[in-house]
Amino acid sequence: MTDPRSDDHATPLPAPPGPGQVAAIRPGLLWVRMPLDGPPWHVNCWLLRDGAGWLLVDAGIDRPGTRLAWDSVFATALGGLPVTRVLITHFHADHVGLAGWVCERFGAPLLMARTEYLQARLLLLEAPATLLAEQAALGEAAGAPADYLRHLLARRPFYRPDVVPLPLHHRRIAAGQALRVGDGDWTLHRGGGHAPEMMLLHDPAGGVLIAADQVLPRISPYVGVFPPEPEADPLADFLDSNHHLLALPADTLVLPSHGDPFLGLHDRIRVLAAHHAERLALLEAICATPRTAYEASRLMFQRDYDMDQMLFVIGEGLAHLNWLVARGRLVRMRGADGMALYGPPG
């Protein structure tokens, strides 16, 4: 993977912008970085010049400081032009959080994939206590200890506090469509595994991919199991989605949601595939002795995590276990106490 800022043959890219500031990737394509409360500590958003205004891609989480940062961007960086459309790549709070606020402010329509829009609407309607209870039930079934379950049930609620209510209508976008932005067409691609129908935007003429959370430069995107579908196989979806992106040119400039823009799309996809292959092999070896999902996940990650991060350890561990079970490399069985165990077949 190549960092364009250190490549003599690449157009130099700007340093990451501070909150309330923008950096120009190229004319008509602006980079905005909004803060988050925890790792990875920021989310990247993008503004594309679009006729009489700007198309905003992702909006950040709902926090007073983020609203103030957007106020500054809107007042100083857009040449007096409005946001005319808001495109949200997927339903996660750090992307969709302020979408409703921006749409209302400018009278702008919301563009989302149908699955992502409905998922966000569903989570906003769900009682926060119910979401916590569902996550605790997933942890309990995985064999997590009681202190983790108590912490989870007592923690700050998920989702609703971080996301402004969405408009009651949206414009559906889907993979394979061409989205006209200004004088050019961006092709929409679907990313899977991290979210069910995440939208990625590719500008063939400019050689740019807005990659959302599908391909990140330094970390592997979270690929985990969620309570409504505990036996899902999101890792297969993630790896398959990445494989399809190999059809894009190798020198595509990738604009990720976390981290800095980079060149080397194909190399990064191969690194991610190798990382997950190594994790799967390790987990298979760990489960030579049957283990609960919690035990296997803790051994796979091999480091201490705080209670809030344990949710992601269990979810990603289950995703890898489910992949191995689906391919017959492990089996899911019941222990004497009724707890699900994962072990070798036969």
End-to-end C-alpha gap: 42 Å
Unreliable runs = 1-9
Count up the helices. 10
In CATH, the architecture is 4-Layer Sandwich
Largest sheet: 7 strands, mixed
CATH class: Alpha Beta
Shape, principal axes of CA atoms: globular
What order do the SSEs take from the amino end to the carboxyl end, as H and E?
A: EEEEHEHHEHHHEEEEEHEEHHHEE
Q: Strands, helices and their partners?
A:
Layout: E1 23-26, E2 29-35, E3 42-50, E4 53-57, H1 64-76, E5 83-87, H2 93-96, H3 99-106, E6 110-112, H4 114-125, H5 128-142, H6 146-154, E7 171-172, E8 178-181, E9 184-191, E10 198-203, E11 208-212, H7 234-245, E12 253-256, E13 262-263, H8 265-286, H9 293-301, H10 307-326, E14 331-334, E15 340-343
Parallel strand pairs: 4-5, 5-6, 6-7, 11-12
Antiparallel strand pairs: 1-2, 2-3, 3-4, 8-9, 9-10, 10-11, 12-13, 14-15
Description:
It is a single chain. This protein is an alpha/beta fold. It has helices spanning 64-76, 93-96, 99-106, 114-125, 128-142, 146-154, 234-245, 265-286, 293-301, 307-326; strands at residues 23-26, 29-35, 42-50, 53-57, 83-87, 110-112, 171-172, 178-181, 184-191, 198-203, 208-212, 253-256, 262-263, 331-334, 340-343. The strands form 3 sheets. A 7-stranded mixed sheet has the order 1-2-3-4-5-6-7. Strand 1 and strand 2 form a beta hairpin. Helix 5 runs antiparallel to helix 6 (146-154), helix 7 packs antiparallel against helix 8 (265-286) and helix 8 (265-286) packs across helix 9. It is globular, with a radius of gyration of 21 Å. The termini are far apart.
